[in-house]
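TODO from last week: model DYW domain-containing protein.
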Amino acid sequence: MFLAPSLQRRLSSLRLKPLLARIGDGYRHFKRFVLAGIFASGRSSSSSSSTSIMMRVEEHGRRQDDNRSFRNMVSGGTPLDQFMAASVLKYCAEIGALNQGKQIHAYSIASSLGSDVYVGSSLIAMYVKCSDLVAARKVFDGMPHRNVVAWTAMIFGYAQRGRSENAWELLAGMRRAGVMGNDFTAASVLSSCSDDAVGLSRGKVLHAYVVVAGLVSYFAVGNALLTMYSKCGSLESSCQVFDEMPGRDVVSWSAIIAAYGQHDDHEKALSMFRQMLLEGIVPNMHTLASTLASSGGLGNLWSVLQLHDLCIKIGLYCHVTVSNALMAAYSKCGQLSISGEIFESIESKDVVSWTSIIAAHAQDGDGHEALRLYAVMRKMGIKPNDHTFISTLDACTTINDLNLGKQQQADIVKTGFDIDVSVCNTLITFYAKCGCIEDARKVFESMRFRNLSSWNSIIVGHAQHGHGQEGLRLFDALLQIGLTPDFITFIGVLSSCTHAGFVEEGLGYFKSMSQDYGILPRMDHYGCVVDLLSRAGRLNEAKAFIDRMPFEPDPIIWSTFLAACRVHKNIELGREAAENLLQLEPNSIPTHVLLANMYAAGNRWKEVADVRKMMKDKGLRKKLGCSWVTVKNTTYSFTVGETNHAHMKELFAMWNKLAPVLRDAGYVPDTEAELHDIEESEKERILGHHSEKLAIMFALLNTPPGTSILITKNLRICSDCHSASKYISKVTSREIVMRDTTRFHHFKDGICSCQDYW
């Protein structure tokens, strides 16, 4: 069957069947028979649409005929006046016919049209649309006279390419030349504002100017203001602009819907979409794309299906922008197979189409498939954009492959995206999550321009690696250059305090959020404070803090508190935490395991047996500890207690050889980490079979002396493996980096970066 299992189960719903049927009928009406069959019957088909192929051939032929007519017209000596030349240039811009545009340019130079301001403005617009800013600027600089259209076209070109400084320099030059800008000029400059404090400041200055100049009532200006404020993080200002607009077109509604979506208020975005429909505004492709993004952000499959139906009704289903948005929305709802079929149905896949399917696989945890698709895209000659690289780096992060990530970085440099802020921010996150905080720092230091996300990424990265002091130093540096922290910044700051044990400092930063910066703490911030107090053993304060929260704590907060109760052996508070947690997630395996481990740490073996019986009755099985290590581009996995691994004999021999050396260096097995009621000698034997030790032994046997070892574990590292790793790093002169579910541990010369505080 084509449809994903969760959607198949919903097919029995009387409420859903008519909607799926309508989607199928719509595709059938437009002769899109493959997708019609998918939604009508739930079956996939490998056949391609002959109609689609014919349409592509017809479209290609039409454009070829047009291009031949251009050449014949110019070479045949047909005289062109300025209006005809401008019309042809406009058409060249629309279809991206740069070569034909250059022919018209050459003709205008050879004729009397070279100095015509109308033709010059059209040439600039054509070169801008065809992404040749150098040629556009050359035309602009060579014009003896420039009107507002020429100035605006050049400003628009810089704005489209993100070259804010050039756009603002031209605006200043335009004013010095005494040329008054119009609504399109203002809209172009507003779109060039960068998404930082400088951009916001410039946007506010221009806002005041357009009010005085009487331009604020124009749709283009109001919409540009709305988008500018949203991009710069001021949703409140965007809403104010929207509310004050004397009239609103579909672009206005699309912009406010996108603004809410960009600020993760997806419910409000959908509410605004419904209000727009009630006011009789017909959505365009951008409206639908933004609304689909919010539906996907909520994981609301029913909403996505309704929007899909609407796309067909208004005839926008086959537009590549809408198809790309549908792909992304379905994948976020767990329907990757539907995304794949929509991808295959797109006749002219653009870079956004490829990026959407690559991102879908990366988000689904299939990093290898995401990178395979990227390779196919490149072979087809499609150039990646910034979002493509963000998705491929996410894929590398998912599979924790440092070498593949470095290959991506080489491609990023080759294609010139190493100056893109968003790509560099993702690189910082990639290196930090792969255990290479030094490489993350190198990327950060090499950036010519950094936005708030850049600072957030490096602060969070240092926090994850236990470099709390450095995280706080970076926060101070952020403030000194005039940036205003947001809620993500404070997650990094509070995490820095948590991992470094800076309890009082962390509590101070938590208060400062609302008092000094007007940021209302979210669940994540409360979770950081609970973690901060709990790790420090201040469990009563942590419990009181939970009780004072303005909303009900989520499972993560109770899990954090329960884990700390286990570490500090406070059974009474731990039991209370477990009870609250089981009310929220009655079948949570980690909760049952944490509760059993807490009882075992207190030698409460009867309670341990009761919890294990409860798990058995519910059909719950404990998740086994598993560790991974990559050697020579191959990833090897090791599971606690396994005996049938191909290399197990050598690994046990290596551990038995190393264990006495570790003991001589001061290592003492922590048998309390083995939570079973058995003899001490048996506990020591089992400790030697923990997955992280097996992975380290394998790396020691298969990598050159002195090289670093990177281990990834699916659970929190146990106290014995933590101790053993410190001594292994000392006696083997190796740096061992271990990434568990809570943080990174850097073991070097017998010391861990966490300072035994984790």
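Done. The mean pLDDT is 84.
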